[in-house]
Amino acid sequence: MQKKVACSFPDEVLEHVFSFIQSDKDRNAVSMVCKSWYEIERWCRRKIFIGNCYAVSPRMVIRRFPKVRSIELKGKPHFADFNLVPDGWGGYVLPWIAEMAGAYPWLEEIRLKRMVVTDECLELIAKSFKNFKVLVLFSCEGFSTDGLAAIAASCMNLRELDLRDSDVDDLGGHWLSHFPETYTSLVSLNSSCLGSDEVSLSALERLVGRCTNLRTLRLNRAVPLDKIANILGRAPQLVDFGTGTYGADLQSDVFSSLAGAFSSCKELRSLSGFWDVVPAYLPAIYPVCSRLTSLNLSYVTIQSPDLVKLLRHCPSLQRLLVLDYIEDSGLEALSSSCKDLQELRVFPSDPFGEEPNVSLTEQGLVSVCLACPKLQSVLYFCRRMSNVALVTIAQNCPNLTRFRLCIIEPRTADFLTLEPLDVGFGAIVEHCKDLRRLSLSGLLTDRVFEYIGRYAKKLEMLSVAFAGESDLGLHHVLSGCESLRKLEIRDCPFGDKALLANAAKLETMRSLWMSSCAVSFGACKLLGQKMPRLNVEVIDESGPPDSRPDSCPVDKLYIYRSVAGPRFDMPPFVWTMDEDSALQVS
Amino acid sequence: MELHLGLALPTNPFSPIGYEGPFYTNVNTSNGSCSSGGGAGGSKKRRGFDEETRVVPKTLRLLLWKTDQPDDEDDPNDLDNSSSSSSAILKNDGEGLVGWPPVKAWRKKPRRHVHNGRGRGRANNNRMAASKSTYVKVKMEGNAIARKIDLSVHGSFESLSSTLMRMFNITEEHWQKSFKLAYQDREGDWLLAENVPWRTFTRSLKCIKLIRR
Q: Rounded to an integer, what distance in angstroms lies between the CA atom of residue A321 and that of residue B164?
């Protein structure tokens, strides 16, 4: 390529061309072509995704990308969802907001996952970004409805407010009345996680009535069933609706207005909510069922026959979340009614019980896999599994991209042969060539990891619990899985050897979590010493790890790559192993 | 036959190649046979491990790993409960494993702030505010094993009772005739769950017991 050809394009033209390139990977590739493309690209990058908020500092991001309009950040490791990460671990977004308040006055979108957000952060957002449009707080915590009130009061261009699964201090529904009467831009509101009994229904109804572009509305449990008709009546254009409580004494007038309200929602494609369901009210949604593509029944504690009755009305269903009350018979019925199914999640109704409380086994999943060719994503909790079932699933669903199986009792063997489930999971990774996410369970030896290392070349995230026999298992995964980004392991006999032997691999991944394994403190120190671009953090609530011999295993270990160096906001129970191998205690 | 691996550092022009540190050994990428470990239920088979298909970057050799001796399978740092399934399950004060099964339990932390003079309020009362999750213990009189149920999915005594009946395999008839629902409140008193509004019940209860009439 001759230099004069490259210079003949003015920057604006290149910028315009680059504006058609949206994906991060492509943008990163563009920026590496040459210095001038790097410069042009960085000035016109509008959207940033940071999968680990500690991998880079706010200042570094701002320095490179001065004109960002949309940012997505993730904080705590995934196992925080299951109480494995102690409170106070970190993931604070305030430093980011504080820096961006000055640097990105035109910031429009903030999406956060597993981060600590305070009311102060929300107030700062409300004050600093004049054109703020989208706030998504996914599994976040640390804020109250007072912070939300600040957002509501100030953000005149707010389109989306999504609090899914966040832990919010709900002081009552008054925050909704902080949206000014002149505010009409809302497109999406998800407040389903709010726990207070109080909600300002009149403010909600007025808000819904004047926001004619509203497409998504997910209410919280406090909104009673008899108010749904009124709300839907003001928003018949809704595409995605989440009810509040869906139970009450059956009254025919309430039922008929409810059914009428649902029938007028011609665009409705997704339903959720359904707390405290009274089965007699379910037929009110039948008018919309034929068009439904997504149904979340994970709070619905009704029995299989009632569930089946509902599902038979939903032939277009692509996504179903349901409790194991559906049982094998219900899943069989599902497989004959819903041929377009792409995603299935079956949650346990009694996860801590020792005996099965429902008749849900591997058969349910097999029947769905045999009949639904488009199935791509599975999350399934059950109490027994067999290799032959897994092989059948693998052979019939080669398009699976996400397969997460949780056999509730750790180390459960194949119930037919009493063997490990290595061969079954091996078939999954062998046949499902596009598998990106896998969670293992049941009795598993090192062999399953050999299969995973050999076949799972597109695997990006692997979750392992109570599996394996030796470091060889971990070595297979780290050395074989080329696309691996996130690895989380608990209660496995993996120690120092595989970790140290594959240290370089860790720099190609986002993060590694190991808890209740056999990694020694000495190995952690060595790793921290030798790998300056990794942050090796030891989490131990029982006291400083150097008060015990180096050969002692650490309780929890979180390793992630970072260009920002060790962090300084660690709580007392987190230690970073760094270059001088001295402890950094905050 | 042995499997030799080194500390695999990223290759960059500045890292010393062929560094001879204190732990230097020859890297022989030979076909290694590795015996599988004793582990929980795995049988001892010899498997071939094809090292030659993997591209091994020139590395800083810090670690020699021999896997043909059964002793080496037992990592000296192995936790003593990692191979025994029963002891592993009884962590967390016999309450069961932390974070297993991996269901997203609603975590409630004590609220630190008092907002604008308003009290904390039992704002989140359809979640169990004081405990870390919405699961409460249920015991049946005469049955040694306690169970746990997620109260947040129930909105009424009917719903709760039908779940408990399924859980303990009690028929409706038997339930009406022989059982009563009792609960222990936060003060430690045992009360009958009769004539108590559902909300009061869920707000004050700590655990549930099925007692025989």
A: 23
Q: Which helix (H) or strand (E) holds A143?
A: strand A141-144
User: What are A487's two structure tokens?
Assistant: 């690895």
Instruction: Flag if A493 and B54 touch (Cβ within 8 Å).
Output: no
Predicted-complex ipTM score: 0.87
- Partners of residue A144 in chain B, C-beta under 8 Å: 113, 115
Task: Tell me which residue of A311, A320, A260 sits closest to A290, measured CA to CA.
Answer: A311
Rounded distance, CA A310 to CA A437, Å? 30
Enumerate the residues of chain B whose CB falls inside 8 A of the CB of residue A81. Answer: 102, 104
**Could you count the other beta carbons within 10 Å of the beta carbon of residue A551?**
12
Name the token pair of A286.
Answer: 């039948």
Q: Which secondary structure element, helix H or strand E, spans residue A297, and what is its range?
A: strand A294-297
Give A2-32 pLDDT, tens digit per residue. Answer: 555 555 678 889 999 999 998 999 999 999 9
- pTM of the full structure: 0.78
Residue A424 host element (H or E)? helix A422-431
Tens digits of residue pLDDT in A53-74: 999 999 999 999 999 999 999 9
What is the spatial distance between Cα A222 and Cα A429, in angstroms, rounded to a whole number? 44
Single out the residue of A66, A70, A65, A163 nearest to residue A122, CA to CA: A163
Query: CB B41 to CB A141 under 8 A?
Result: no
User: Pick from B100, B109, B113: which is nearest to A465 by CB?
Assistant: B100
CA angle A243–A248–A253, rounded 5-degree value: 90
Phi/psi region, residue B2 (left: phi>0; alpha: psi -120 to 50; beta: rest), is beta
Pairwise CB contact (< 8 Å): B65 & A501: yes
Measured CA distances, A266 to A290, A403, A532, A556 (Å): 11, 33, 57, 51
